[in-house]
Every structure is written in structure tokens, then in C-alpha cells.
Amino acid sequence: MAELLSLSSIVPGTVIEFDYPTHNFHHLNLEFVRRAVQVERMESFLRSPLSLEALRRRPLIRRGSTMVFGRDLLADQERSFYLEASRGAFLPGFQLGIYDPESLEDSLEVVSCRFKPTERNCWRMLAMMTELAKKDYGRLKLGAFRCLP
Q1: Strand partners, 147
Q2: Contact between residue 81 and residue 23 where contact means Cβ atoms under 8 Å apart
Q3: Are 73 and 37 in contact (CB under 8 A)?
Q4: 3 conformational bin, left if phi > 0, alpha if psi -120 to 50, beta if neither
Q5: What tens digit of pLDDT does each residue of 79-120 get?
Q6: Rounded to an integer, what distance in angstroms lies between the CA atom of residue 97 and that of residue 3?
Q7: Contact indicator for 146, 94 with CB cutoff of 8 Å
Q8: Which residues contact 111 (CB under 8 A, 6 or more apart)?
């Protein structure tokens, strides 16, 4: 797993192997299967806010901060994987924040406690975000931000 998290060595065309849950949800027991993925691209969500709409659509997904997009060679299909959801990695927690979409780094104001990656906290975060979304923040936006352990 340490080799997998060496993100600088993962470039398009690279084949990476790791154990990934058959279903990546907090409320299901984790059963892992071996994956061999030919990487097409990677995307970091560490500083990308999760919207209330995205959280409502899939509240119990075990979200990470780095996603790999590519072809699962064993299943012969295009897939995406949160690297931190693989066996031996750590999922980030979340905090809610208010931010200016044009200057996120300079404007982020954290407005919640840290939510550890558990089923209960997914529901708590959704409830708190739903309540906070009732307020008008003008041009500022509300989002859930990943925070590393």
C-alpha cells in the first residue's frame, strides 16, 4: 500500500494493483477484491469542496481525497477509485466551510467540527450541512472539505 500512495509515480498508462471494497459504502461490511487498473488520469479533491447536492445523492460513500480514473483490467471496464478506500489506507475526515469560489485558499472559514469517516458522521454532516444551507451567504458557498488524519 505504501507504494500505491506514492502518487508522484502514478502517471497515465501505469498499471497499479490494490485491494478495493466490492461496495465502497460506510454502512456495508467491507469485502475486498484485487484490482489491476491502467491509469488514465488522477484527480485530487483535497481542496475541492463537496456540495450539499453531491452529499445528498450519495451520503454513505467512503470518499477519499485522490481519485484514479482508468480501466479495471480484471473486470474489463472503465472505473474510478478513491485511493484512500483501498485496504491499508486511511480515509480523510471532513469539515464544513464557507468559501469564496474565486479565492478558495484565501477565503475558507471552517464552520464545523471534524467529521471522522463513519456512517453516523455521514448522517450528522448531512444534517448540519442541510441546516447551514438555509442561510444566505451571498456570493460565498458552503461545502464539505476533506481533512487528512
Answers
A1: 93
A2: no
A3: yes
A4: alpha
A5: 999 999 999 898 999 999 999 999 988 899 999 999 999 999
A6: 32
A7: yes
A8: 96, 97, 98, 132, 142
Q: Which residue has the cell 469485502?
A: 31
Query: CB atoms < 10 A from the CB of 12, how many?
Result: 11
Phi-psi domain of 107 (left: phi exceeds 0; alpha: psi -120 through 50; beta: other): alpha
Burial 79-118 (b: 16+ CB within 10 A, else e): eebbbbbbeebebbbbbbbbbbeeebeeebeeebeebebe
Neighbours of 18 (CB within 10 A): 21
Q: Is the pTM for the entire model greater than 0.90?
A: no
Half-sphere exposure of 98 (CA within 13 A, CB side): 10
Q: Which residues contact 93 (CB under 8 A, 6 or more apart)?
A: 114, 115, 116, 117, 121, 146, 147, 149
CA distances from 91 to 60, 61, 95, 104, 149 (A): 13, 11, 13, 23, 8
CA–CA separation, 3 vs 43, rounded Å?
18
> Is the model's pLDDT at 5 over the cut of 60?
no
> Got the DSSP string for 50-82?
BPHHHHHHSTTB---SEEEEEEETTTTEEEEEE
Q: Residue type at 24?
A: N
